[in-house]
Amino acid sequence: MFKPVPIAIGLRYLRAKRRNGFISFISLASILGIALGVTVLITTLAVMNGFQREIRDRLLQMTAHATISAEGVPMEGWRHALDLSMQDMRVAGAAPYVEGQALIQGRSSQPAILRGIDPMLESRVSVIAQKMKRGSVDSLTEGSFNILLGNELALWLSVKVGDTVLVMLPEFQGTPMGAMPRYKRFTVSGFFEVGHNEIDRNLAVVNMADLQKVLRMGDGVTGITLKLYDMDRGWEVARDLALQLEGLYRVRDWTQENANLYQSLKMEKTMMGLLLSLIILMGSFNLVASQVGLVTDKQADIAILRTLGLSPVETMGIFMVQGSLIGTIGTVLGVIGGIVLTLNLEHILGAIERVFRVELLPEDVYYITGLPTQLQASDILIIVIVALTMSFLATLYPAWRAARTHPAEALRYE
Questions:
Q1: Which of 53-57, 316-320, 365-369, 398-402 has the lowest mean pLDDT?
Q2: Rounded distance between C-alpha atoms, residue 243 and residue 239, angstroms
Q3: In terms of DSSP bridges, do strands 146-150 and 132-134 run parallel, antiparallel, or are they unpaired?
Q4: How far apart are CA 330 and CA 411, in angstroms?
């Protein structure tokens, strides 16, 4: 009795049985449509977040959160930069590296990224030691000229542990026969598998001192890699450290090193969210239809209320309240359903695989076991706002139509 009139009547209309059962059916369809759209959207974005996390984590197992490198020349003062980095509380680990492009020739030839590492320091920034399928990182001793290959790269080269590969670099040296590319023979001492095709197929690892000799860099390195406690602050931390060093340095973080992949994953998630929002939009169209039907069904009631002094704005409020409540109920049910479905998705997937005896996510194709999911509060909040906004907008036309009802015309045939 203490509620404003539009809210009180709107709630009463929501609870009351309607004379037209078809309108009630459309209202129920509106609730279910909005709930289904919200559920599907939450679950889909959670799965995409899970796959993005898996891809990012696998990629960053072997690549740096950030790098600091000299501009166009070997980095000579890398030891000072290394000490300075390790003193920064934001840095979990730092290590030097030498890197270049190479053509590796075994029984066939394949271009690859050749990276020189210090086996003693590399464990600070990567997990290559834990990803070895054959051999060990300890085999990369100075002067051994051993090489570790990604598993896919080794398959392309058709080589095994103990074989010799020819590494040709895109640097030419003068010989009596003219300019010839610089090359060196390395012995394959092991294979690693990260689970990311770009790394397993395109990366070869050698001892940093051996690569320095081949490239004639002296004591210089390409740069230092940084592993941070907060990877999203990569560029900021690397910039702060570079400003403390003398000379010009190039700063890059993992989002720049993998810009194409990072942007494509972000765009894919955005487009998928927009497309699945159409399901919520369909529920909103059903809401428009149900509200228009309700306005037509309640013409006499509206006319009587208008004759009792209810203003057009208050009349609009009645149907806006009712339509918004339908949208709110659908959104709440959708959020609950989306969270419950996401948390149990792996069990549901397992049940489907057992019943139909199929493997939906083959491990040899996706390099993962199970279905990764990650619920993010920000995604859920955006979905709720979109669903409630669509529901509110869907009530405007029916409510406006109700406000234009003329009591005399509505009651003429009653």
A1: 365-369
A2: 6
A3: unpaired
A4: 34
Amino acid at 286: N
CB 97 within 8 A of CB 117: yes
Could you tell me which residue, 300 or 135, shows the higher pLDDT?
A: 135
SS3 label, residue 3:
coil
> What residue type is assigned to position 271 of the chain?
M
- For 311, the token pair is 């203003």
Beta partners for residue 204, in sequence order: 114, 149
CA distances from 317 to 28, 154, 186, 211, 390 (A): 21, 70, 79, 75, 17
Q: How far apart are CA 165 and CA 212, in angstroms?
A: 18
How far, in Å, are 28, 271, 291 from residue 274 at the CA level? Answer: 24, 5, 25
Dihedrals phi, psi of 144, to nearest 5 degrees: -80, -25
Region of residue 48 (left: phi > 0; alpha: psi -120 to 50; beta: else)? alpha
Q: Quick one: pLDDT at residue 23?
A: 57
- When pLDDT is averaged across residues 278-297 and rounded to a whole number, the result is 82
Q: How crowded is residue 287: how many other Cβ atoms within 10 Å of its Cβ?
A: 29
**pTM assigned to the model:** 0.72
Contact 135, 148 (CB under 8 A): yes
Indicate the Cα dihedral angle 63, 66, 71, 72, nearest 10°.
0
Structure tokens at 358: 């199929």
**Axis crossing angle, helix 377-403 with helix 259-297, rounded to the nearest 10:** 30
More confident residue, 337 or 355: 337
Q: Residues 377-405: what's their mean pLDDT?
A: 89
